[in-house]
Specification:
- With 484 residues, this protein is mainly α.
- 67% of the residues lie in helices and 4% in strands.
- It starts with a helix and ends with a helix.
Length: 484
Amino acid sequence: MRFAPEYVTHVLNENFEDAKRLFVGPLLAIHYAHLAMLAETRIIASDTPHRLRVALDVVSRENVCAIRYDGTYEDLFFYIDRLIVREAGEDAAGRLHTARSRNDIAMTMYRMRLREFVLGLMAASLDLRRSVLELAERHRDTVFLVHTHTQRAQPTTVAHYMLAVAEQLERDATRLKAAYDDTNRSPLGSCAITGTGFPIDRDLTADLLGFDGPTGNTYGSIATVDYLLESVSAASVLLTGLGRFTQDLLLWSTEEFDYLRLGDGFVQSSSIMPQKRNPVALEHVRSIGSKAVGQAHAVVLAVHNTPFGDIVDTEDDLQPLVFTMFRDATRAVKLLAAALATATFDATALEARAAEGWATLTELADRLVRDHDVPFTTAHRIAARLIEVRGRESTAPLSYLLAEVSESLLGTALRYSEAPLTEVVSPRHFVQVRRTLGGPAPEEVARATTGARAALDSDQAWWHDRTGRLTQAQQRLSDRCARL
């Protein structure tokens, strides 16, 4: 078959280059696993497997990746098929394609690569969690002011904030693990879409390729892309949370906020303004992450409203986008993890600033409720009026103003001495009394940090287990084929 030059230039050549970059290894592994299964089930004659294994051994990944597409074959599968024919002969090479199709081969390749992408992003997110938790542990008692609606809100601690980020990353890990488990099922043996009449062993090929087992329905094995969308969605959710966190970090790095300082290796100066210290690493995190989110949405759009069956929209043209999305996602997460490992906070300055702007006034209202059994809404009005009066009488003792305001609103003066009242509205007291589950009090933060460390260790163990299983499967496949 001769293809039109425009089709070769704009489709086949592009797809061949993408396949060389992404799928040579998976395709050869599938050939070996299928061959081992055909030999085990005696679907092909006993002398043929050895000839085919020798022919496969001759195929060089490096040589395949170095060739230029010439249009005399359709794709990577047919090119490697030509190499096998050259080494084993038409008769033996033709038997390797018994009980399979390019359809189930392709879907198996895609899943093999996708599981690597998911594991790569998972590893990067674990590194980020480690950086976040190290900051939490170093700054368990570092009080600082946080914002709601971009306005000063209440004091908390750097640790409390970082633990919120860590919890989000824990949920990201849960989503990535679920996506991996759904991805790591082998479609091999589904053939074109209805399976085969040959007595194949799908469990064997799944095991040799490191899958947790075969997929179920053969039609769905070829047609479905929900496993892919699940992985892409998990990555997209992670990146969205990452972007919001990064936006805070960039704001904190401004001279106006001056909460955060990155190490010199993650900032750049200006060619004209010597005083500049630009936290460009964080800008790159935001930019690369945003690009990956856009690519993730493009993946969903590419398969939306396509037929539920074998269709190119989910295949050659889509897979490079999946690759670049995960590559950029992983780049962004790795960069942020490395930058955060160098981050420092000025604890003294942060606590001093947390005392500004009446950010602790909620605790004063709470104290009035506890001490005087007034409704919180009444205590809220007293505290709000106190701010107004203090603005007019800035030198008067706070205790005097509180008594004056409360008498005007309640008819009874609520009296405190100045020192205890000063303690009530201090940022550190505000934090220490918030012992709610998940709150910023030091003992609660300590408990949460211990739990977060345990969760990180568990997810790290999961990652080591899954990567180890893939390595062991490669060894099983190699040992099995060496005996052919």
